[in-house]
Amino acid sequence: MMGSRVCVLGFLLLIIFGILELDAVYGYRPPPRRTFFVPDADNPGSPQQVHISQVGEDRMRISWITKKSTAAEVTYGLSPAANTSSAKGITSSYSFLFYKSNHIHHAVIGPLNPNTVYYYRLGDPSSSKTFSFKTTPSKLPIKFAVIGDIGQTEITKSILDNVAKSNYDMLLLPGDLSYADLHQTLWDNFGRLVEALASKRPWMVTQGNHEVEKILLLHSKRFTAYNARWRMPFEESGSDSNLYYSFNVAGVHVLMLASYADFESSSPQYKWLQNDLRKLNRKITPWLLAVIHAPWYNSNKAHPHDHESVNMKKAMEELLYKSRVDIVFAGHVHAYERFTRVYKDKPDDCGPVYITIGGGGNREGLATQFKEPKPSISMFREASFGYGAFQVFNASHALWTWHKNGNDANEISDSAWLNSLSSNRTCKK
């Protein structure tokens, strides 16, 4: 009986991984890249996989994992002693087939001062080193790092090293984090890989197709690992799901949308988005960004007709257009492409700029084939690994740059100055 179950499991996994690798079959990508392995902690009580995410405008969620059961407690302060204040959190774990996670801890600390370095220790002070992070500014300017489809390869490591040097305030990630693809220990390795960055600046993420991790009959629940490990501040924005939420930071309102949750006009996500946009005050947040996984605009031959792209666009494009969203960031396609302001496939000065940034270093490689001729609405495109930087200087002006990762170098290959739609009198609602 056990042998037959293993055979069935193996067969299903082959089918699933075959689906995940369809792009490679069609010749869009080079061979997979090598995984960059990070050693596990020797001390079972030592916190690892530490990452932070913003909760409201003056609080931070600290998330970490320990092998043995320890208190979900954070001590923190303005000095390396990190002992001025403390906060208790929650601990959970999850199972996935034969895998049982270690202890996953989440604790929210604050209120915190803006643009300030805080020091913190986790769980048992005798087992925890001192970490530090810098809070985001309360007003403009602010700098975002934007990176999609990260994975955990040697190229990922190189790109993250470049991001670390960029002096960013917050990182936005439009899905496809670890590329664990059912192999749960790779989630642990990913957490250790990004800790050096994600423990120092808030990482705000949404999910992609590689986070689904559903196996027919064997594990029917979707996003198990993602929801357990990467808890985002969805409750604070009135969302009922960790898969979609919004937040304010400095003078920017950010929508983190779910390509892989229901998005039709009758869905909870659509109704939540309507309500969230209805409450916006562009005098307080003059910039409005949206982050999705599957791009609505794409001239690459990879993923040309995905349901999550085509039908989410049909359902939500008008809503984002009427709300004057400035930029929509997407991943999924492993290449870079920047479109002009567009609405319903035509240039429109009051539409969002659509930018695809799916070249974060993942094992599947680049999507190297673009459709020809290039559409007139596509301003720049190239099959490159890298990350983006979005610097918002004031209520009306921002600079976008694409940092191409060529031979581990950090080369700006595309840039564009943008004006907020809230400052454009012809686009006033």
Commentary on this structure:
Strands 14, 15, 16, 17, 18, 19, 20 and 21 form an eight-stranded mixed beta sheet that branches. A six-stranded mixed beta sheet has the order 13-12-11-22-23-24, with no helix packed on it. A hairpin with a 2-residue loop joins strand 14 (245-249) and strand 15 (252-256). Residues 1-28 have low confidence and may be disordered. By secondary structure, the chain is an alpha+beta fold. It contains seven helices and 24 strands. Helices cover 19% and strands 29% of the residues. The termini are far apart. Residues 351-414 form the Purple acid phosphatase C-terminal domain. One of its GO terms (molecular function) is acid phosphatase activity. Its cofactor is Zn(2+); Fe cation. This is Purple acid phosphatase.
- Cα-to-Cα separation, first versus last residue: 65 Å
Stretches with pLDDT under 50, minimum 5 residues: 1-28
| Helix percent band | 10-25%
Quick check: average pLDDT?
A: 92
Rounded to an integer in angstroms, the radius of gyration calculated over CA atoms is 21 Å
Number of strands: 24
Question: What is the beta-strand fraction?
Answer: 25-35%
Q: Which class do the helix and strand fractions yield?
A: alpha+beta
Coarse morphology: globular
What does the main sheet amount to? 8 strands, mixed
Q: Note the total helix count.
A: 7
GO molecular function: acid phosphatase activity; metal ion binding
Family: Belongs to the metallophosphoesterase superfamily. Purple acid phosphatase family.
Pfam family, one: Metallophos_C
Cofactor: Zn(2+); Fe cation
